[in-house]
Amino acid sequence: MLHIAPISKNANIFTHPVNKFLVKQLQVPFIQKITEYELAKFDRVLKEVIQKIADLPENWDAYQASAVEKDVLKNTQELLLKLPLRFKKYLNITDITPTPNGTILLEWNKDNNFLLVDVGKQGITIASNNLQKNVPISEAFPTLVQCLENFYYDGVS
Q1: Do residues 115 and 107 make contact, with C-beta atoms less than 8 angstroms apart?
Q2: Are strands 104-110 and 123-128 parallel, antiparallel or unpaired?
């Protein structure tokens, strides 16, 4: 199950504990806006980030966090590698974060709205300002693309 903490309008991405961890401990490059050059590197950098998350041990956050299982890593990588570039450009590498319960959280933002995708072993949970939906992994990709279409091009999901 997805736990959503309130997101402050004035939140600084560098002060978010998981992002600080990714940027400093995992040495993940912070990309504020992905340029065309960065888009070309996105898939390579994505694989590096997934590998660094894969290398996290149990209790990686010192608060009994679970390690991320191989199926979760595989599901996340497959979803993101298949995404059209028009959606990859909105995803910062630091918005791909492990969660304490062994899943991976993806976050897209637009104005004061958000779209969160919690990728698990069996499926994904998609949540936004006014949506929460559990989707089996077999339906995850088309559902995610449709939600991103709605979020960025037809209004907020």
Answers
A1: yes
A2: unpaired
Give the H/E segment covering residue 75: helix 70-82
d(CA 97, CA 5): 14
Q: Which residues of 43-72 are buried (b: 16+ CB within 10 A; e: fewer)?
A: eebbebbbeebbebeeebeeeebbbbeeeb
Contact 69, 102 (CB under 8 A): yes
The answer, as to whether pTM is greater than 0.70, is yes
Q: How many domains does the chain have?
A: 1
Question: Residues 8-53: pLDDT tens digits?
Answer: 333 333 334 444 444 444 444 444 455 666 666 788 888 899 999 9
Residue 40 pLDDT: 64
Closest CA to 52 of 79, 77, 82: 77
Residue 36 lies in a domain: yes
Q: Which domain holds residue 147?
A: 17-153
